[in-house]
Structure formats: C-alpha cells, structure tokens
C-alpha cells in the first residue's frame, strides 16, 4: 500500500468522533419517530457515554487496520513515516489538552454530549493516545524517541493518565495502553515483561536459544574434561593440561584451584594463562620460568605476595592482579620492561605503591599503572642496592677490626699500646685501672694482673662494640661509615 493511501486512512481515523455520535443519534431519533416507538423526549434518556464507547470500539478496529498497513511499508521508509505520524499525534494531543484544560473539563466529569468543542477534544485525546500506544508497542524504536523528546513524553504521560481516568476505552485498548506505559517506563515494568507485539522478539528468542545451546555445549565439554579429574586440580596431569591448551593459551579460571597445577610450567609454548577467579594463595617460582608468557590473569584469588623471580617474565605485557591480598611487590618486578597493562585494584597496597598504581579504572589508566609501577620498583631497587653496598662496607670493617683483635703480632701489640695512650678511651680505662689499683692495695698481685688485661684489651673491645652499634645505626639511618665517630 502506498504512503498516500496510508495517509488517507489515518486522516479518516482522526475524524471528528463527536460528529459521528450526533449523526448516529439523529438517525436513532428519526427512526424512532417513524415507527412511533419513542416519545419526542426519548432522546434525553440516551446513554451517551455507552454510545461513545461502542463507537470508539469501531474506531479502534479501523486503527488496527491502519497499523497493519504501516507494517507493510518498506522498512527503509517505515521509520521516517512512523516518526512523522507520531509528530502529528503529539500536536493533536497538545492542542486538545489545552482545550480541555482551558474549559476546565476533568476526566471524571460526565461525557460532554451537549458541547461539541468538549466532545471533539475528548474524542481526539482518547483516539490519538490509543493510536500512539499501537505504534509504540509495535515499533520499539519509539522508546528512544520518547526518551529524546521531552515534550512528547510529557503529553503522552498526561494523555495516558487522562484516558485511564475517563473509563471510556474498552478493555483491549486499556491493555495496550498499559503495555505502552510499561515499555516506556511511565508505570513500573514487571521483571517478566514481554511485549507480544514486538516483531524483534522472535529474533531475541532465537539468540537466547542459541546462547543456551552454547552454554550446554560448554558444560558438556567441561564435564568431559573433568570426568577423570583427581581430588585436587593442582594434581592435574601434563596430558590433561595439554588437552586444555588451545593455540598457546590455557584457561584454568573459576575451577576452585587452591594451588597452581604442578605440571603447568611443563606445558610448552604457552603465552597466555588465565588462573583468575580461583582460591590460589601462592604462586610457585617455577611459573616465572615460563619466559614466553605475554599475558597472565591472576585476578580474584588470595595471593598476598608474588614470587621473588617474577622479573624473569621479560616478555610479560599484561598482568591482572585485581582483588587479591598483595601489599608489596618484589624488587625483581622492576625487570618487567615489556609490561604494558597492570591492574592492582582491590589490594591492600602500601601507600607509596598505591599512589604509583593510580585508579586502574579504565584501559588507559591500567596502561599508565604498568609504566608507573615499573618505574617505582626501579627506584626502590636502586635504593636497596645502595643500602646493601653500605652494609657490605660496614661488615668488612667489622671483620677487619675483629681480625686484628684475634691475631695481633708483636709489632701490632706495640702499636696498639701506643694508639691506646692517644685515644680518649685509653684515659678512661687508665682511670679505672688506678681506681681498682688503690681499691685493692691489700692484694697487689690481683691489681697488677687486672690492670694489664684492661690496658691490653680494653680499647679493642670498645672499638668492636662501637662498630657493632654502628652497623645497626647505619642500617636505619644510611650514615656513611667515615662520618661516624665512637666516643
């Protein structure tokens, strides 16, 4: 059917319902007078409300026929045509809403058969909101039109409520009106909402059926794989793992694993491993020997640390550690120079590492997190190496001093005594020597032996004790050895 013909049909649908009511009433009166069945005042007892309801049902049948004609329009032209019709419906509803509100007619008032203006306005509101409901439930794209066009939505909501309160529509029309209101969320939409007029429903049902079939096939495949499964997935054999591998990838996610399968590092040429959504608490160092790895998924596990040799994965580009218990990263993490994507969200990270990680709320932020965290770990590694060098120097000095104290030569003894006399500590020990000497006059032999031992070994013990305390101090304060003096 051509567009011109459809327009003619729609024009007929939007004709004056009140005129038709009056015409029908006149025919009824003429016929009554002809057959002398009704008195001249019988028209006062006509139920105009019921009469309009019957005529409205006829109009609705015409509207349904018009909708079927629109459905048969070529799809490429149908949308534009429907939008144009909706635009006209909106204008008619707005115009007659203004009329009804200006006169002050309420939807609960009696049917205004004595006012042509009111009856026309009321008829056009009911007929056009019903026609819009037919269009809306059959062409779902109008839902988006409603969301975009605020004025259209406003007048449709008003007309829907007005029509419901009048009670002039038939049951079938109210059913379509409610369906339209649910679809456009004018009234609450039930969870099991189904639009029986939606032609796309069949397509969605087929897609849903296909999805269920795919899920069923996946479940059957999983059962086939796990029928020989052992008590623990961590003991799954190398052969079973090879069967699971597909194009250098293996998916072991959501399998209830508490340990990484021991044979996993033996699967050759793996580049992608997914161990996400399990209950793994620790990663074996052998996993980090799989240097071909490019992508490693470890999200939603119970990991609280990573292996110290994680830096051996020099080709790793994607690392997912989302939702674990990690606080810090090993220093070898600084060697992951190929890392391009990192997610550390939902981990109790230390403040500095958390700051370097950022939000990881998007693809871009996860990429930036990889760059920032690797740079942060490189800085941490440099600081650690500097501290270790200082520690080594201190240890060497301690060993040197202890060695001199244990194996003194005859010449060193002489030098040691000479040095003792110049050191402030020597004065301290000499003072104690004389104190002990005078305090033990009754035992001259004891005083002489004790004084010789104190003078010989006292300074050496002080130096050793001083250096040992220096080790502790420099470890915490990072003080250079040459700037630390014993007293």
Helix and strand pattern: HHHHHHHHHHEEEEEHHHHH
- Structurally, how many domains make up the residues? 3
Morphology call:
elongated
The level of helicity is 55-70%
Number of strands: 5
- Largest sheet: number of strands, sense, barrel closure: 5 strands, parallel
Round the mean pLDDT to the nearest integer and report it. 77
State the end-to-end CA separation.
110 Å
Oligomerization category of the chains in this entry? single chain
Structural class: mainly alpha
Structure annotation, total helices: 15
Low-pLDDT stretches are 1-9, 11-43, 413-461, 466-487
Strand content: under 5%
Radius of gyration over alpha carbons? 47 Å
Question: Biggest sheet: strands side by side, in what order?
Answer: 1-2-3-4-5
Region (Disordered): 204-226, 400-424
Pfam families: ERK-JNK_inhib, LRR_1, LRR_8
Signal peptide: 1-19
Biased composition (Basic and acidic residues): 204-223, 400-410
Task: Give an overview of the whole structure.
The protein has 487 residues and is mainly α. It has 3 domains: 3-199, no CATH class; 230-382, Leucine-rich repeat, LRR (right-handed beta-alpha superhelix), CATH 3.80.10.10; 408-483, no CATH class. The protein contains 15 helices and 5 strands. It has helices at residues 3-13, 17-35, 48-71, 75-103, 116-138, 142-148, 150-166, 171-183, 201-226, 238-244, 351-357, 363-406, 410-422, 424-439, 444-477, and strands at 249-251, 272-274, 295-297, 318-320, 341-343. The protein has a 5-stranded parallel β-sheet with strand order 1-2-3-4-5. Helix 1 runs antiparallel to helix 3 (48-71), helix 5 (116-138) packs across helix 7 and helix 12 (363-406) runs antiparallel to helix 15 (444-477). Residues 204-226, 400-424 are annotated as: Disordered. Keywords: Leucine-rich repeat, Repeat, Signal. It holds the Pfam family LRR_8. Residues 1-19 form the signal peptide. This is Leucine Rich repeat-containing domain protein.
């Amino acid at each position: 059917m051509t567009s011109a013909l459809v327009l003619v049909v729609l024009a007929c649908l939007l004709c004056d319902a009140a005129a038709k009511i009056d015409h029908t009433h006149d025919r009824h009166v003429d016929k009554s007078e002809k057959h002398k069945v009704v008195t001249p005042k019988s028209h006062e007892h006509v139920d105009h409300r019921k009469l309009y309801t019957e005529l409205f049902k006829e109009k609705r049948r015409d509207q349904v026929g018009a909708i079927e004609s629109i459905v048969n329009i070529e799809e490429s032209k149908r949308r534009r045509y429907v939008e144009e019709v909706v635009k006209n419906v909106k204008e008619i509803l707005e115009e007659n809403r203004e009329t009804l509100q200006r006169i002050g007619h309420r939807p609960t008032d009696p049917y205004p058969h004595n006012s042509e203006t009111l009856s026309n306005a009321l008829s056009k509101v009911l007929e056009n909101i019903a026609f819009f409901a037919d269009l809306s439930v059959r062409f779902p794209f109008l839902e988006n039109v409603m969301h975009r066009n605020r004025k259209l939505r406003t007048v449709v909501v008003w007309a829907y409520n007005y029509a419901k309160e009048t009670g002039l529509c038939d049951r079938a029309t109210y059913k379509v009106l409610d369906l339209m209101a649910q679809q456009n969320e004018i009234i609450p939409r039930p969870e099991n909402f189904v639009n029986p007029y939606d032609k796309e429903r069949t397509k969605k049902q087929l897609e849903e059926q296909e999805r269920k079939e795919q899920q069923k096939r996946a479940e059957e495949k999983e059962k086939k794989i796990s029928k020989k499964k052992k008590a623990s997935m961590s003991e799954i054999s190398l052969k079973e793992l090879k069967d699971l591998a597909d194009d250098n990838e293996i998916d072991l996610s959501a399998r209830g694993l508490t340990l990484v399968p021991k044979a996993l590092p033996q699967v050759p040429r793996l580049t992608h491993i997914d161990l996400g959504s399990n209950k793994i608490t620790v990663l074996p160092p052998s996993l980090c020997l799989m240097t071909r790895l490019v992508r490693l998924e470890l999200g939603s596990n119970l990991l609280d640390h990573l292996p110290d040799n994680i830096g051996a994965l020099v080709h790793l580009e994607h690392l997912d550690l989302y939702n674990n218990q990690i606080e810090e990263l090993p220093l070898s993490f600084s060697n992951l120079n190929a890392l391009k994507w990192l997610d550390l969200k939902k981990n109790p990270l230390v403040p500095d590492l958390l700051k370097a990680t950022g939000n990881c709320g998007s693809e871009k932020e996860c990429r930036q997190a990889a760059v920032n965290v690797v740079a942060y770990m490189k800085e941490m590694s440099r600081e650690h190496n500097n501290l270790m060098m200082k520690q080594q120097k201190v240890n060497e000095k301690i060993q040197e001093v202890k060695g001199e104290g244990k194996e003194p030569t005859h010449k060193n003894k002489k030098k040691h005594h000479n040095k003792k006399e110049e050191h402030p500590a020597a004065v301290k020990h000499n003072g104690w020597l004389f104190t002990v000497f005078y305090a033990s006059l009754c035992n001259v032999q004891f005083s002489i032996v004790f004084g010789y031992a104190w003078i010989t070994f006292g300074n050496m013990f002080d130096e050793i004790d001083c250096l040992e305390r220096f080790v502790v101090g420099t470890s915490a304060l990072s003080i250079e050895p040459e700037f630390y003096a014993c007293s």
